[in-house]
Amino acid sequence: MDAAYDVIIIGGGPIGIACALNAQRAGLSYLVLEKGCLTNSLYNYPLYMTFFSTSERLEVGNIPFVCINPKPNRPEALEYYRRVTTSNHLNVRLFEEVKEIKSNGKEYTIHTQDGLYHARHVIIATGFYDIPNMLNIPGEQLPKVTHYYKDPHFYATRRVLVVGANNSAVDAALETYRRGADVTMVIREESIGKRVKYWVKPDIENRIKEGSIKAYFHSSLAEVREKEAVINTPEGLVTIPNDFVIAMTGYQPNFSFLEKTGIALSDDAKKYPAYNPITMETNMPRIYLAGVVCGGMDTHVWFIENSREHADKIIQHIKTRV
Question: What predicted TM-score, i.e. pTM, was given to this entire model?
Answer without folding.
Answer: 0.90
